[in-house]
Amino acid sequence: MRAVDIIIKKRDGLELTKEEIEFFVRGFTDGSIPDYQASSWAMAVLLKGMTPQETTDLTMAMVNSGETLDLSPAVPLAVDKHSSGGVGDKTTLVVEPLVAACGLPVGKMSGRGLGFTGGTLDKMESIPGFRVNLTQEEFLSQLKEIGLVLAGQTAILAPADGKFYALRDVSGTVDSIPLIASSIMSKKIAAGAQAIVLDVKIGLGAFMATQEEAKDLAKFMVDIAHLAGRKAVALISDMNQPLGIAVGNILEVKEAINTLQGRGPASFREHCLDVAEQMLILGEAAADGNEAREKAVQALKDGSAWMKFVELVKAQGGDASYVEDPDKFPEAVIIEVVTSPEAGYLSQIHARIVGETAVDLGAGRAKKDDQIDHTVGIEILREVGDRINAGDDLFIIHAANQADLDLARERLLKAHKWSDSPVDRLPLVYDIIR
Ligand code: URA
């Protein structure tokens, strides 16, 4: 078999066999298929799509590119969650300790920023010393000991996805249903999750722009989970405007801390409770939605979710003094509050523009090996539906230099739209796919 023939076959819109997909994934993982062929293939997949069978084969080929974790010696029923990617989406940082505090252990393998969306690992690495590269033994023993792990993709688990993910980030091949579905599900299956809550984002700041696309993605993933013998449920949730206030790594960690301490933005807190509720039900830690919600609210209220987060930071080598006193985190060189040039009801805060602006400020990567600036980012102070006056604070930019700040200000003003008549608030969740 030759890689180029497989690229051409997909380019021509034909269905690949399991053997061809396995050959390609194996070759890319061991380095015999170079980046340029892999990105060309990913582009062909993005343009021509894949059948459910091809997507399942791709998922399993990526799972089999490394080892798989068996979490059963550590936990009776391992539950995990995964977002399809959004702007300001720091849900994992709140939900995982929250659910663990409710007695449901979570061992999660997360990703880095992708395109205009942020990544959990980049956020957690804002905490000095926090290690995301754990060995399999460390992963398992931490899960057993404290019931919570937040690790990166290791060279052992789904290494093919790790390589593809980094390549897709910088080759315009992120927003493809089969590539996203196989990327997410390979990580979840390899990391041993028995039950998975999928948070599929829809809207301007998501890879899926329409409800139909989001539902397709959700169905693909739920079906793959079932084929692999796992339980799964998918929330279709809003990503037209950024989630919460903070976009950017340290800023998002601070917002997660605030939320865990009961002070975060109301809509973000609600979203976290929605996800936690589904995890607690799927993980059999609650009989129904009401019980799950009550447990989750209680874990926020009594401080146990916050204590779990601190435990997690310490367990993975992070300097907990930063999360205990967030003023210790370094700040960006320039911080500017931008006020509203107009009065009216906010009708749009374009999440994708906000995400792209954050990446350009240095919060994400333009090339694979780019270094992230953890201090930079944006605080979006208003929500769609808010009534504001001209001169009210609108957003805050945290930038590394004046030129970046000027550019960001101009783009972020364009991301906001005003209306003279009242505007409905955006829903948090549109649908649940089982
Ligand atoms: N999250 C992932 O893990 N992979 C994708 O491709 C998109 C979001």
SSE inventory with pairings:
Layout: H1 3-11, H2 18-30, H3 35-48, H4 52-63, E1 79-83, H5 91-101, E2 106-110, H6 120-124, H7 136-146, E3 148-152, H8 159-169, H9 177-190, E4 195-202, H10 211-227, E5 231-238, E6 246-247, H11 249-260, H12 266-282, H13 289-301, H14 304-315, H15 320-324, E7 334-339, E8 344-349, H16 351-363, E9 377-380, E10 387-388, E11 393-399, H17 402-415, E12 416-419, E13 429-433
Parallel strand pairs: 1-4, 2-3, 4-5
Antiparallel strand pairs: 5-13, 6-9, 7-11, 8-10, 8-12, 9-11
Helix pairs in contact: 1-3, 2-4, 2-8, 4-9, 5-11, 5-12, 5-14, 9-10, 12-13, 16-17
The structure holds uracil (URA).
Uracil (URA) binds at residues 84-85, 111, 114, 165, 179-180, 183-184, 187.
Quick overview of this protein structure:
The chain has 434 residues and is an alpha/beta fold.
Can you walk through the features of this model?
With 434 residues, the protein is an alpha/beta fold. 47% of the residues lie in helices and 15% in strands. The chain has 17 helices and 13 strands. It has helices at 3-11, 18-30, 35-48, 52-63, 91-101, 120-124, 136-146, 159-169, 177-190, 211-227, 249-260, 266-282, 289-301, 304-315, 320-324, 351-363, 402-415, and strands spanning 79-83, 106-110, 148-152, 195-202, 231-238, 246-247, 334-339, 344-349, 377-380, 387-388, 393-399, 416-419, 429-433. The strands form four sheets. It has a four-stranded mixed β-sheet, with helices on both faces. The protein has a four-stranded antiparallel β-sheet with strand order 6-9-11-7, with helices on both faces. A three-stranded antiparallel β-sheet has the order 10-8-12. Helix 2 (18-30) packs parallel to helix 4 (52-63), helix 5 runs parallel beside helix 11 (249-260) and helix 12 crosses helix 13 (289-301). The protein starts with a helix and ends with a strand. The model has no long low-confidence stretch (mean pLDDT 95). Bound molecules: uracil. The site of uracil (URA) has 10 residues, from helix 9.
